[in-house]
Amino acid sequence: MKKRLSCMILSLVLVLSLAVPAAFAANGDTYDAAKAYRGGDTVIYNGVEYTAKWYTQGEIPGEGFSAWERTRLTDADLK
């Protein structure tokens, strides 16, 4: 019984250690101008999710002729 409880606690800790950072990343910006992104990479910039169309570095999502495509609608888009 004690061993089973220990296994359950360990499993819970592992699941939370993976889920919690993802939840924080979903609410904060993940875009880094110094990082190189490949087509298909996804970032969050100013609370909006973008996907790279091709290789890009230093190009701000949503500005000018963009290598980024908006991939999720926000509440503001629905109003």
Protein architecture, described:
Strand 2 and strand 3 form a beta hairpin. By secondary structure, the protein is α+β, with helices and mostly antiparallel strands. The strands form 2 sheets. A 3-stranded antiparallel β-sheet has the order 2-3-5, covered by helices on one side. Mean pLDDT is 78; it is low at 19-24. The protein has 2 helices and 5 strands, in the order H-E-E-E-E-E-H. The N and C termini lie far apart (54 Å). The chain is elongated and about 60 Å long. 38% of the residues lie in helices and 20% in strands. The longest helix has 26 residues, at 2-27.
Number of helices: 2
Q: Helicity level, as a percent range?
A: 25-40%
Number of distinct beta strands: 5
Task: Determine the N-to-C terminus distance.
Answer: 54 Å
What is the CA-atom radius of gyration, in angstroms? 18 Å
- The side-by-side strand order for the widest beta sheet comes to 2-3-5
Mean of pLDDT: 78
Described by strand count, sense and barrel closure, the largest sheet is: 3 strands, antiparallel
What amount of the residues lies in strands?
Answer: 15-25%
Write down the secondary-structure element order: HEEEEEH
Poorly predicted residue ranges: 19-24
Q: How would you classify the quaternary structure?
A: single chain
Backbone structural class: alpha+beta
Any idea what the shape is? Answer: elongated
